């Protein structure tokens, strides 16, 4: 069984043609893999060698880490603000409910007093159930 080759066989091409094809494939790979802002840093890497490659890669990594950190802070701030808003709303509702309960308690006490007065009046007048 023959295994298919992953290499591109270029029949009848000269060395310059092969180098041109490889260079074109590398450029195409850079365009597909790298975002626009990091393309400039890749060009700098080619000029400077290994030390530039490490520095540019860490620069892109630091930018990505910084952006992630800022987005996390913004999202956290939004969530905390929402929680504080909910706490304030809940407190307002609890205050309303407690004031209603107090007024209902006063109404119930007044009704009990009226009921007791009516019972005393009925007992004094001699009307029985």
TrEMBL record:
It comes from the Eukaryota. The keyword Transmembrane applies. InterPro entries: DUF4577 (IPR028099). It holds the Pfam family DUF4577. Keywords: Membrane, Transmembrane, Transmembrane helix. The chain crosses the membrane at residues 65-88. This is LSME1 protein.
